[in-house]
Specification:
mainly alpha; 2 domains; 7 helices
Length: 170
């Protein structure tokens, strides 16, 4: 069952997906025609709706892969606490924490891609205009910041808990 935090995460996923959809849709469409209000409404709004749905689907899929929302919350609590409670069998907590620790590579990949995408976006300033360029750069910087300040630190914390837990198991 979703609590308030889960509903807010779904809302955040929808908003981020919508922003990505709008910016990407308008960017692609503006390559062939001038960026106007009509283009924003005709292409951006539907692309935003698709992006919002994709963001929610992606979050739900992440929870499902992690064993459901409740299990994901428990694993995040373990990472926050820096330890796995006594009595949780290693065959349960090791794969869950390993999956969290493995996200570090994905975080670094996003940062590298964000740097490249920002450079590509800035190089097309004359083609897309200042407003669209700034929106895109903001999107790329936001994705990179999320990875740098949330994904990578959480993955490292999960790896630390995993390392400590593995060394204390007989």
């Amino acid at each position: 069952m979703l609590d308030e935090a889960g509903r807010l995460r779904l809302l955040g996923a929808a908003v981020a997906g919508a922003a990505f959809g709008v910016v990407l849709g308008v960017l692609v469409a503006s390559s062939w025609t001038e960026a106007t209000t009509g283009l924003l409404v005709g292409v951006g709004v539907p692309a935003g709706l698709v992006g919002a749905a994709a963001g929610v689907w992606s979050q739900l899929r992440t929870w499902r892969i992690g064993g459901g929302y409740d299990r994901s919350v428990v694993v995040q609590d373990w990472i926050t606490d820096g330890r796995v409670p006594d009595g949780v069998p290693a065959e349960v907590w090791v794969p869950l924490l390993q999956a969290q620790a493995d996200r570090e590579a994905a975080g670094w990949s996003k940062i590298v891609l964000c740097v490249l995408w920002t450079a590509m976006t800035w190089s097309a300033l004359d083609q897309h205009g200042l407003l669209l360029t700034v929106l895109l750069v903001g999107l790329w910087v936001g994705i990179g910041a999320w990875s740098a300040f949330w994904v990578i630190p959480r993955a490292r914390a999960a790896r630390a808990v995993l390392r400590r837990g593995v060394t204390t198991v007989p």
